[in-house]
Amino acid sequence: MIKISSFALIVILILMINISLFLGQYQISFNEYLMFLKKLIGLNSLIDNEKYETMKSIIFDIRLPRIISAVLIGASLAVAGASFQAMFVNPLVSPGILGVLSGASFGAALGMILGLNWFLINLSTFIFGILAVFFAITISFIYSSSRNMIILVLGGIISSSLFSALLSIIKYGADTNDVLPAITYWLMGSLSFSTSSIVWNLTIPMLGGILILIFFSKYLNALSLGDEEAKALGVNTKLIKLIIIIVATLISALSVILAGIIGWIGLIIPHITRLIFGADNKVILPMSALIGAIFLLLVDNVSKLIFSFEIPIGIVTAIIGIPIFIFVLKNAKKGF
Amino acid sequence: MKLIEAKNISFSYKNNQVLDDINFELNEGDILSLLGKNGSGKTTLLKILLGIFKSKGEIKILDKNIKEYSNKELAKIISYVPQTHQIPFDYTVFDVVLMGRLPHIGLFSNYSQNDKDIATKALEKVGILNLKEKIYSQISGGERQLAFIARALTQSAKIIFMDEPVTGLDYGNQLKLLNFLKELSKEEYTFIKTTHYPDHALYASNKVMMLKDGKILDNGLVDDKLTVENINKLYDVNVEIIKRENGYKFCIPII
């Protein structure tokens, strides 16, 4: 059942990637797309050179990076969310629980108001995302007790609040003509932010992070029974939890660099996956990655079809995600 | 064969002395019952021996200091059956039992067919193979207890710690479980279990350790040490221990 489903999901993802390639402002018909593919692999094709070059630049410089970006973000956030839900023994947790999203938001806004170039803005986004999580962990170390997971969550909430407040200060002081709209738009998330070079540079680290978490999924199962039981099952809980936090934070922060803040996926995709496949994280993590990727691509395509202009994807994920969630909930075969 | 040897174990939690100068030995095939009031340190002692809490004193497991073991190595020697609890995720019973193989697999490997067979056999042995695909959080408390025992067997550790194993089980299943432990102890399994029932210690263990306020009240063979006087000191109640002709003893309160 699981082998068939994962195969089916991979096929759907590949189909979706191909469909996404010829959706957009510049019309490419299915026929033209086939011709283009033929020429690309060196076969005889009726397509003329000028058209071929245009299509090549549209597909490789604009559409493919955007698609890869959607796939990476959807998969990263879903996997990070599923990992945190198991590790914190709490299904209501999302990737931002330790403050990475708030920290990254602040970092980006800071970069924008200082008028930095995009590379430095990205760097600031990343660094403050990591810093916020580091702050949360530090708070949890101050008070050590057997309830340390709750203190860690509390540390995350404190850290999130701090960086949200700092972000508000920047927004309050930002120029209402250009910087404030840029920050606001960025906070709503958009796949149009990332250039092809950023996408290609982040592909390997993000895929690597996703794979590491998938390898750790068997430990996540044990951790979701509680710390003490995980230890009794031979898990070095401190080390494993630290690695999970670091990797999940890294891929979440990188996803923010690609497309700003995209909510909802990290919380809800793991739930949809559990409703279909049951609770075993060895299944849930890879399936969440696939479903998250498919979902974000779907959302991007739907919003491209419905709206002729670029609409922040953070808005559409919730609007499209809710009916899908309700549908899955109604037809759920497995429990949470 | 001596499996566990503990010397001068002391443990305090935030200036609160939980255990004070605990000494004992555990030999192969023993069923050791830990008796004591609520809060007397029974569960804490189990968690120290599992390496979950760090204590003062010296603990040797298979003649090697517990500090020299990694969590993983220790988990191959000792398995733990905790008190049943709710899990917020809907694992199947099989998912939970299979987790017992975790100490046996490496970082990059997954559970093999052999691991799954071991888990299935454990379910069969405990008598809940029919619950294999059921959702763990939806079965009864007693069945969950049995699932945890199946997980402990799956872990292939020869020492099994149980924290109040009969809690939540119906009368019949309590006795079944105790008989099951007696059987397993003949197959080279060794047990430490905490219990609130002197009767169960009399029925299904050869050794007893009584903890009072974190200190050992008495410690030794059940026949010698589980006496009216000790039970009286331990719980402040009056009891009578009656011995049947077939040798079985049981304990009744005197009102």
Distinctive features:
heterodimer, A: 336 residues, mainly alpha, 76% helix, B: 255 residues, Rossmann fold, 4-stranded antiparallel sheet, 9 helices, 29% strand
Question: How would you summarize what this structure contains?
Answer:
The complex is a heterodimer of chains A (336) and B (255). Chain A is mainly α.
Topology (elements, then pairings):
The complex is a heterodimer of chains A (336) and B (255).
Chain A: H1 2-21, H2 30-40, H3 49-87, H4 100-113, H5 118-142, H6 148-173, H7 179-187, H8 196-215, H9 217-223, H10 227-232, H11 237-259, H12 265-277, H13 281-306, H14 313-330
Helix pairs in contact in A: 1-13, 3-8, 3-11, 3-12, 3-13, 4-5, 4-6, 4-7, 4-11, 5-6, 5-11, 8-11, 8-13, 9-13, 12-13, 12-14, 13-14
Chain B: E1 2-13, E2 16-27, E3 31-36, H1 42-49, E4 56-61, E5 64-65, H2 71-77, E6 78-81, H3 93-98, H4 113-126, H5 141-154, E7 159-163, H6 171-186, E8 190-194, H7 198-204, E9 207-212, E10 215-221, H8 222-225, H9 228-235, E11 239-243, E12 249-253
Parallel strand pairs in B: 3-8, 3-9, 6-7, 7-8
Antiparallel strand pairs in B: 1-2, 1-4, 4-5, 9-10, 11-12
Helix pairs in contact in B: 4-5
